[in-house]
Amino acid sequence: MNYELFIALRYLKSKRKTGFISLITYISIAGVMIGVAALIIVLSVMNGFEKEVRSRFIGVDAHLHVRTFHDRGMENWPGIEKQISGHPEIQATSPYIFNKGLVKSREQTTGILVRGIDPESAVKVTEIGKNMVYGVLNVGPVESEGETTLPGVILGFNLADKLVVTLGDKITIASFANVAQFGQMPQMMQFRVTGYFQTGLFEIDDNFAYISIESAQRLFHMGDKVNGLEIRLDDYEKAEIVAKRITDQLGYPYRVVTWQDMNPNLFAWMKIEKWAAFVILSLIIMVAAFNIISTLIMMTMEKTKEIGILKSMGATTGSIRRIFTFEGLFVGVVGTILGNLVGYGLCWAQQSYKLFALPSDVYIISWLPVLMKWGDFFAISIAAVLITFLASVYPAAHAAKLDPVEALRYE
After folding, report:
1. pTM exceeds 0.85 for this model
2. Are residues 373 and 270 part of one domain?
Protein backbone atom coordinates (compact mmCIF):
# COMPACT_ATOMS: atom_id res chain seq x y z
CA MET A 1 0.00 0.00 0.00
CA ASN A 2 1.48 3.37 -1.00
CA TYR A 3 1.54 6.09 1.61
CA GLU A 4 -1.02 8.31 -0.15
CA LEU A 5 -3.68 5.57 0.10
CA PHE A 6 -2.61 4.82 3.70
CA ILE A 7 -3.03 8.47 4.73
CA ALA A 8 -6.34 8.78 2.87
CA LEU A 9 -7.77 5.80 4.77
CA ARG A 10 -6.43 7.21 8.07
CA TYR A 11 -8.15 10.51 7.36
CA LEU A 12 -11.44 8.75 6.75
CA LYS A 13 -11.17 6.65 9.91
CA SER A 14 -9.77 9.33 12.23
CA LYS A 15 -11.91 11.17 14.73
CA ARG A 16 -12.45 14.70 13.55
CA LYS A 17 -12.97 17.91 15.50
CA THR A 18 -16.48 18.03 14.14
CA GLY A 19 -18.58 14.95 13.58
CA PHE A 20 -20.56 16.80 10.91
CA ILE A 21 -17.97 16.00 8.23
CA SER A 22 -18.14 12.29 9.11
CA LEU A 23 -21.94 12.44 8.88
CA ILE A 24 -21.77 13.97 5.38
CA THR A 25 -19.30 11.24 4.37
CA TYR A 26 -21.78 8.54 5.43
CA ILE A 27 -24.61 10.38 3.69
CA SER A 28 -22.49 10.51 0.51
CA ILE A 29 -21.87 6.74 0.67
CA ALA A 30 -25.62 6.17 1.24
CA GLY A 31 -26.45 8.47 -1.68
CA VAL A 32 -24.20 6.56 -4.07
CA MET A 33 -25.58 3.25 -2.74
CA ILE A 34 -29.23 4.33 -3.26
CA GLY A 35 -28.48 5.70 -6.72
CA VAL A 36 -26.70 2.54 -7.86
CA ALA A 37 -29.37 0.26 -6.35
CA ALA A 38 -32.18 2.31 -7.95
CA LEU A 39 -30.50 2.13 -11.36
CA ILE A 40 -29.98 -1.63 -11.10
CA ILE A 41 -33.58 -2.27 -10.02
CA VAL A 42 -35.19 0.01 -12.63
CA LEU A 43 -33.06 -1.28 -15.52
CA SER A 44 -33.65 -4.89 -14.44
CA VAL A 45 -37.42 -4.30 -14.37
CA MET A 46 -37.24 -2.67 -17.81
CA ASN A 47 -35.25 -5.65 -19.08
CA GLY A 48 -37.90 -7.96 -17.65
CA PHE A 49 -40.77 -6.10 -19.32
CA GLU A 50 -38.86 -5.94 -22.60
CA LYS A 51 -38.25 -9.69 -22.50
CA GLU A 52 -41.92 -10.43 -21.72
CA VAL A 53 -43.26 -8.12 -24.44
CA ARG A 54 -40.73 -9.41 -26.97
CA SER A 55 -41.52 -13.06 -26.18
CA ARG A 56 -45.25 -12.37 -26.51
CA PHE A 57 -44.88 -10.65 -29.88
CA ILE A 58 -42.44 -13.27 -31.17
CA GLY A 59 -44.70 -16.02 -29.82
CA VAL A 60 -47.67 -14.67 -31.75
CA ASP A 61 -45.65 -14.01 -34.88
CA ALA A 62 -42.37 -15.54 -36.13
CA HIS A 63 -38.69 -14.66 -36.03
CA LEU A 64 -38.54 -14.04 -39.79
CA HIS A 65 -40.99 -13.51 -42.64
CA VAL A 66 -40.12 -14.16 -46.27
CA ARG A 67 -42.31 -11.96 -48.48
CA THR A 68 -42.30 -10.41 -51.93
CA PHE A 69 -41.95 -6.72 -52.67
CA HIS A 70 -45.35 -4.98 -52.83
CA ASP A 71 -46.80 -8.18 -51.27
CA ARG A 72 -47.68 -9.66 -54.65
CA GLY A 73 -47.78 -13.12 -53.11
CA MET A 74 -45.72 -16.30 -53.52
CA GLU A 75 -46.95 -18.99 -55.89
CA ASN A 76 -43.98 -21.34 -55.75
CA TRP A 77 -43.80 -21.22 -51.96
CA PRO A 78 -43.07 -24.97 -51.50
CA GLY A 79 -39.97 -24.53 -53.69
CA ILE A 80 -38.86 -21.45 -51.69
CA GLU A 81 -39.45 -23.37 -48.46
CA LYS A 82 -37.24 -26.22 -49.72
CA GLN A 83 -34.60 -23.77 -50.95
CA ILE A 84 -34.08 -22.09 -47.56
CA SER A 85 -34.39 -25.26 -45.46
CA GLY A 86 -30.63 -25.81 -45.66
CA HIS A 87 -29.83 -23.02 -43.18
CA PRO A 88 -28.87 -24.75 -39.90
CA GLU A 89 -30.42 -21.96 -37.78
CA ILE A 90 -33.91 -22.57 -39.19
CA GLN A 91 -36.03 -24.85 -37.02
CA ALA A 92 -39.38 -24.65 -38.82
CA THR A 93 -41.21 -22.83 -41.61
CA SER A 94 -44.89 -22.32 -42.32
CA PRO A 95 -46.89 -20.58 -45.10
CA TYR A 96 -49.36 -17.86 -44.16
CA ILE A 97 -51.88 -15.41 -45.61
CA PHE A 98 -52.62 -12.12 -43.92
CA ASN A 99 -55.33 -9.63 -44.84
CA LYS A 100 -58.12 -7.44 -43.53
CA GLY A 101 -61.74 -8.42 -43.43
CA LEU A 102 -65.14 -7.74 -41.94
CA VAL A 103 -66.78 -10.23 -39.57
CA LYS A 104 -70.48 -10.47 -38.77
CA SER A 105 -72.18 -12.48 -36.06
CA ARG A 106 -75.81 -12.44 -34.93
CA GLU A 107 -75.07 -9.59 -32.56
CA GLN A 108 -72.19 -7.51 -33.95
CA THR A 109 -70.21 -6.53 -37.04
CA THR A 110 -66.60 -5.36 -36.83
CA GLY A 111 -63.37 -5.18 -38.78
CA ILE A 112 -60.75 -7.87 -38.17
CA LEU A 113 -57.34 -9.09 -39.28
CA VAL A 114 -57.57 -12.52 -40.87
CA ARG A 115 -54.61 -14.91 -40.86
CA GLY A 116 -54.60 -18.05 -42.94
CA ILE A 117 -52.39 -20.79 -41.48
CA ASP A 118 -51.40 -24.40 -41.90
CA PRO A 119 -52.03 -25.72 -38.34
CA GLU A 120 -49.49 -28.56 -38.51
CA SER A 121 -46.56 -26.29 -39.33
CA ALA A 122 -47.87 -23.12 -37.65
CA VAL A 123 -47.64 -24.66 -34.15
CA LYS A 124 -43.91 -25.28 -34.76
CA VAL A 125 -43.27 -21.65 -35.77
CA THR A 126 -45.58 -19.70 -33.44
CA GLU A 127 -47.19 -20.35 -30.05
CA ILE A 128 -50.76 -20.40 -31.35
CA GLY A 129 -51.21 -23.91 -29.92
CA LYS A 130 -50.03 -22.82 -26.44
CA ASN A 131 -52.23 -19.72 -26.54
CA MET A 132 -55.46 -21.70 -27.01
CA VAL A 133 -57.63 -21.16 -23.91
CA TYR A 134 -60.92 -22.67 -25.09
CA GLY A 135 -61.87 -25.19 -27.75
CA VAL A 136 -59.42 -26.77 -30.19
CA LEU A 137 -57.07 -25.57 -32.93
CA ASN A 138 -59.20 -26.76 -35.83
CA VAL A 139 -59.48 -24.62 -38.96
CA GLY A 140 -60.49 -27.49 -41.23
CA PRO A 141 -64.04 -28.58 -42.14
CA VAL A 142 -66.32 -28.79 -39.07
CA GLU A 143 -69.38 -31.02 -39.17
CA SER A 144 -72.41 -30.14 -37.09
CA GLU A 145 -75.45 -32.36 -36.69
CA GLY A 146 -78.27 -31.17 -38.90
CA GLU A 147 -76.23 -28.25 -40.27
CA THR A 148 -73.96 -27.56 -43.21
CA THR A 149 -70.28 -28.47 -42.87
CA LEU A 150 -68.30 -25.23 -42.55
CA PRO A 151 -64.58 -24.42 -42.23
CA GLY A 152 -63.39 -23.69 -38.68
CA VAL A 153 -62.17 -20.34 -37.34
CA ILE A 154 -60.15 -19.49 -34.22
CA LEU A 155 -60.95 -16.10 -32.66
CA GLY A 156 -59.07 -13.88 -30.26
CA PHE A 157 -60.64 -14.03 -26.79
CA ASN A 158 -61.63 -10.34 -26.78
CA LEU A 159 -62.91 -10.57 -30.35
CA ALA A 160 -65.15 -13.54 -29.48
CA ASP A 161 -66.47 -11.60 -26.48
CA LYS A 162 -67.15 -8.55 -28.69
CA LEU A 163 -69.03 -10.69 -31.24
CA VAL A 164 -70.95 -12.52 -28.48
CA VAL A 165 -70.21 -15.96 -29.94
CA THR A 166 -69.32 -19.31 -28.45
CA LEU A 167 -68.09 -22.66 -29.75
CA GLY A 168 -70.18 -23.96 -32.63
CA ASP A 169 -71.65 -20.57 -33.55
CA LYS A 170 -71.57 -19.41 -37.17
CA ILE A 171 -69.94 -16.18 -38.29
CA THR A 172 -69.54 -14.59 -41.71
CA ILE A 173 -66.27 -13.06 -42.89
CA ALA A 174 -66.28 -10.66 -45.82
CA SER A 175 -63.24 -9.76 -47.92
CA PHE A 176 -62.93 -6.60 -49.99
CA ALA A 177 -59.92 -7.90 -51.93
CA ASN A 178 -60.25 -7.30 -55.67
CA VAL A 179 -63.39 -5.21 -55.17
CA ALA A 180 -62.45 -2.59 -57.73
CA GLN A 181 -65.79 -1.09 -58.74
CA PHE A 182 -68.37 0.67 -56.61
CA GLY A 183 -71.32 -1.59 -55.98
CA GLN A 184 -69.38 -4.82 -56.59
CA MET A 185 -70.17 -7.40 -53.91
CA PRO A 186 -67.35 -8.54 -51.59
CA GLN A 187 -66.42 -12.21 -51.24
CA MET A 188 -68.17 -13.70 -48.19
CA MET A 189 -67.70 -17.03 -46.44
CA GLN A 190 -69.29 -18.64 -43.42
CA PHE A 191 -67.20 -20.23 -40.66
CA ARG A 192 -67.89 -22.16 -37.48
CA VAL A 193 -66.13 -21.07 -34.26
CA THR A 194 -63.94 -23.89 -32.94
CA GLY A 195 -61.83 -22.12 -30.31
CA TYR A 196 -60.45 -18.99 -28.66
CA PHE A 197 -56.85 -17.95 -28.13
CA GLN A 198 -55.40 -15.39 -25.71
CA THR A 199 -51.92 -13.88 -25.96
CA GLY A 200 -52.20 -11.08 -23.39
CA LEU A 201 -51.64 -8.50 -26.17
CA PHE A 202 -54.83 -6.48 -26.56
CA GLU A 203 -54.38 -5.59 -30.23
CA ILE A 204 -53.98 -9.31 -31.08
CA ASP A 205 -56.75 -10.72 -28.89
CA ASP A 206 -59.15 -7.99 -29.99
CA ASN A 207 -58.66 -8.20 -33.76
CA PHE A 208 -57.23 -11.53 -34.96
CA ALA A 209 -58.98 -14.52 -36.48
CA TYR A 210 -57.22 -17.67 -37.76
CA ILE A 211 -58.55 -19.71 -40.68
CA SER A 212 -57.00 -22.34 -42.95
CA ILE A 213 -54.73 -21.51 -45.89
CA GLU A 214 -57.28 -22.96 -48.31
CA SER A 215 -60.12 -20.86 -46.88
CA ALA A 216 -57.97 -17.71 -46.95
CA GLN A 217 -56.98 -18.33 -50.59
CA ARG A 218 -60.64 -18.61 -51.55
CA LEU A 219 -61.74 -15.67 -49.39
CA PHE A 220 -59.09 -13.27 -50.72
CA HIS A 221 -59.02 -14.55 -54.33
CA MET A 222 -55.38 -15.63 -54.11
CA GLY A 223 -55.51 -18.84 -56.14
CA ASP A 224 -52.54 -21.01 -55.09
CA LYS A 225 -50.55 -18.09 -53.67
CA VAL A 226 -49.66 -17.24 -50.08
CA ASN A 227 -48.43 -13.92 -48.67
CA GLY A 228 -45.21 -15.44 -47.42
CA LEU A 229 -43.39 -17.90 -45.20
CA GLU A 230 -42.94 -17.67 -41.44
CA ILE A 231 -39.62 -18.91 -40.06
CA ARG A 232 -38.61 -19.94 -36.56
CA LEU A 233 -34.90 -19.88 -35.65
CA ASP A 234 -33.00 -21.67 -32.92
CA ASP A 235 -32.12 -18.21 -31.51
CA TYR A 236 -34.12 -15.06 -32.33
CA GLU A 237 -30.98 -12.94 -31.80
CA LYS A 238 -29.64 -14.40 -35.07
CA ALA A 239 -32.55 -12.93 -37.04
CA GLU A 240 -30.56 -10.14 -38.73
CA ILE A 241 -27.73 -12.48 -39.79
CA VAL A 242 -30.01 -15.20 -41.18
CA ALA A 243 -32.24 -12.60 -42.88
CA LYS A 244 -29.25 -11.25 -44.81
CA ARG A 245 -28.20 -14.76 -45.91
CA ILE A 246 -31.70 -15.64 -47.13
CA THR A 247 -32.05 -12.29 -48.93
CA ASP A 248 -28.74 -12.88 -50.73
CA GLN A 249 -29.79 -16.43 -51.58
CA LEU A 250 -33.26 -15.66 -52.96
CA GLY A 251 -32.67 -12.23 -54.49
CA TYR A 252 -35.38 -10.09 -56.07
CA PRO A 253 -38.43 -10.08 -55.78
CA TYR A 254 -38.14 -11.64 -52.31
CA ARG A 255 -37.40 -9.78 -49.09
CA VAL A 256 -36.94 -10.95 -45.51
CA VAL A 257 -38.48 -9.10 -42.56
CA THR A 258 -37.23 -9.72 -39.01
CA TRP A 259 -39.21 -9.56 -35.78
CA GLN A 260 -37.53 -6.21 -35.05
CA ASP A 261 -38.67 -4.81 -38.42
CA MET A 262 -42.25 -5.82 -37.68
CA ASN A 263 -42.40 -3.80 -34.44
CA PRO A 264 -39.75 -1.09 -34.91
CA ASN A 265 -41.40 1.69 -32.91
CA LEU A 266 -42.09 -0.48 -29.87
CA PHE A 267 -38.57 -1.85 -29.46
CA ALA A 268 -36.93 1.49 -30.33
CA TRP A 269 -39.03 3.20 -27.68
CA MET A 270 -38.05 0.57 -25.10
CA LYS A 271 -34.35 1.28 -25.74
CA ILE A 272 -34.83 5.04 -25.54
CA GLU A 273 -36.85 4.66 -22.34
CA LYS A 274 -34.13 2.52 -20.78
CA TRP A 275 -31.37 5.05 -21.54
CA ALA A 276 -33.58 7.92 -20.37
CA ALA A 277 -34.11 6.15 -17.05
CA PHE A 278 -30.35 5.56 -16.78
CA VAL A 279 -29.61 9.28 -17.28
CA ILE A 280 -32.39 10.51 -14.97
CA LEU A 281 -31.58 8.13 -12.12
CA SER A 282 -27.90 9.00 -12.43
CA LEU A 283 -28.91 12.36 -10.96
CA ILE A 284 -29.24 10.60 -7.60
CA ILE A 285 -25.55 9.75 -7.81
CA MET A 286 -24.88 13.36 -8.87
CA VAL A 287 -26.49 14.56 -5.62
CA ALA A 288 -24.17 12.25 -3.69
CA ALA A 289 -21.26 13.63 -5.76
CA PHE A 290 -22.00 17.17 -4.56
CA ASN A 291 -21.94 15.84 -1.01
CA ILE A 292 -18.51 14.37 -1.74
CA ILE A 293 -17.29 17.75 -3.01
CA SER A 294 -18.50 19.56 0.10
CA THR A 295 -17.08 16.85 2.39
CA LEU A 296 -13.62 16.99 0.82
CA ILE A 297 -13.55 20.81 0.82
CA MET A 298 -14.43 20.89 4.52
CA MET A 299 -11.89 18.14 5.18
CA THR A 300 -9.26 20.21 3.36
CA MET A 301 -10.02 23.16 5.62
CA GLU A 302 -9.82 20.94 8.71
CA LYS A 303 -6.58 19.23 7.61
CA THR A 304 -4.75 22.43 6.61
CA LYS A 305 -2.07 21.90 9.27
CA GLU A 306 -1.55 18.26 8.33
CA ILE A 307 -1.23 19.20 4.66
CA GLY A 308 1.39 21.82 5.60
CA ILE A 309 3.33 19.25 7.65
CA LEU A 310 3.23 16.70 4.83
CA LYS A 311 4.48 19.25 2.32
CA SER A 312 7.25 20.43 4.66
CA MET A 313 8.35 16.78 5.00
CA GLY A 314 8.70 16.50 1.22
CA ALA A 315 5.24 15.41 0.01
CA THR A 316 4.70 16.60 -3.56
CA THR A 317 1.67 18.42 -4.92
CA GLY A 318 0.74 15.24 -6.80
CA SER A 319 0.84 13.20 -3.59
CA ILE A 320 -1.51 15.58 -1.78
CA ARG A 321 -3.85 15.52 -4.80
CA ARG A 322 -3.85 11.72 -4.80
CA ILE A 323 -4.62 11.55 -1.05
CA PHE A 324 -7.85 13.51 -1.41
CA THR A 325 -8.72 11.85 -4.73
CA PHE A 326 -8.42 8.45 -3.00
CA GLU A 327 -10.81 9.67 -0.29
CA GLY A 328 -13.44 10.60 -2.87
CA LEU A 329 -12.91 7.35 -4.76
CA PHE A 330 -13.22 5.35 -1.54
CA VAL A 331 -16.67 6.86 -0.91
CA GLY A 332 -17.68 6.09 -4.50
CA VAL A 333 -16.36 2.52 -4.53
CA VAL A 334 -17.91 1.60 -1.15
CA GLY A 335 -21.25 3.14 -2.16
CA THR A 336 -21.14 1.35 -5.53
CA ILE A 337 -20.38 -2.05 -3.95
CA LEU A 338 -23.17 -1.64 -1.40
CA GLY A 339 -25.57 -0.44 -4.13
CA ASN A 340 -24.77 -3.49 -6.27
CA LEU A 341 -25.42 -5.80 -3.32
CA VAL A 342 -28.71 -4.09 -2.41
CA GLY A 343 -29.89 -3.98 -6.04
CA TYR A 344 -28.97 -7.61 -6.67
CA GLY A 345 -30.60 -8.73 -3.42
CA LEU A 346 -33.92 -7.01 -4.15
CA CYS A 347 -34.00 -8.22 -7.76
CA TRP A 348 -33.17 -11.78 -6.69
CA ALA A 349 -35.94 -11.66 -4.07
CA GLN A 350 -38.46 -10.52 -6.70
CA GLN A 351 -37.33 -13.22 -9.12
CA SER A 352 -37.50 -15.94 -6.49
CA TYR A 353 -40.55 -14.97 -4.43
CA LYS A 354 -42.51 -12.59 -6.74
CA LEU A 355 -43.04 -10.10 -3.93
CA PHE A 356 -44.63 -7.42 -6.12
CA ALA A 357 -47.77 -8.50 -7.98
CA LEU A 358 -49.45 -6.76 -10.93
CA PRO A 359 -53.17 -6.69 -11.81
CA SER A 360 -53.52 -9.37 -14.49
CA ASP A 361 -56.49 -7.60 -16.08
CA VAL A 362 -54.27 -4.59 -16.88
CA TYR A 363 -50.86 -6.11 -17.57
CA ILE A 364 -49.91 -9.13 -19.67
CA ILE A 365 -48.34 -10.81 -16.61
CA SER A 366 -49.38 -11.09 -12.97
CA TRP A 367 -46.06 -10.15 -11.34
CA LEU A 368 -43.32 -7.57 -11.80
CA PRO A 369 -40.77 -9.12 -14.20
CA VAL A 370 -37.07 -8.77 -13.45
CA LEU A 371 -34.12 -9.64 -15.69
CA MET A 372 -30.65 -8.84 -14.40
CA LYS A 373 -27.88 -8.29 -16.94
CA TRP A 374 -24.25 -8.18 -15.86
CA GLY A 375 -23.59 -5.58 -18.53
CA ASP A 376 -25.95 -3.21 -16.70
CA PHE A 377 -24.18 -3.84 -13.39
CA PHE A 378 -20.84 -3.08 -15.03
CA ALA A 379 -22.04 0.09 -16.81
CA ILE A 380 -23.72 1.43 -13.66
CA SER A 381 -20.65 0.72 -11.52
CA ILE A 382 -18.32 2.43 -14.00
CA ALA A 383 -20.65 5.46 -14.20
CA ALA A 384 -20.92 5.75 -10.41
CA VAL A 385 -17.17 5.48 -9.81
CA LEU A 386 -16.46 7.93 -12.65
CA ILE A 387 -18.92 10.51 -11.25
CA THR A 388 -17.43 10.26 -7.75
CA PHE A 389 -13.91 10.49 -9.18
CA LEU A 390 -14.78 13.68 -11.05
CA ALA A 391 -16.39 15.04 -7.88
CA SER A 392 -13.10 14.61 -6.00
CA VAL A 393 -10.92 16.33 -8.63
CA TYR A 394 -11.60 19.95 -7.61
CA PRO A 395 -11.26 19.48 -3.80
CA ALA A 396 -8.06 17.43 -4.35
CA ALA A 397 -6.62 20.14 -6.60
CA HIS A 398 -7.57 22.78 -4.03
CA ALA A 399 -5.79 20.84 -1.27
CA ALA A 400 -2.69 20.36 -3.43
CA LYS A 401 -2.38 24.15 -3.99
CA LEU A 402 -2.05 24.95 -0.27
CA ASP A 403 1.18 26.73 0.61
CA PRO A 404 2.92 24.93 3.52
CA VAL A 405 4.25 28.24 4.94
CA GLU A 406 0.73 29.72 5.04
CA ALA A 407 -0.67 26.47 6.44
CA LEU A 408 1.78 26.40 9.38
CA ARG A 409 2.15 30.15 10.05
CA TYR A 410 -0.30 30.30 12.93
CA GLU A 411 0.35 26.83 14.33
Report:
1. no
2. yes
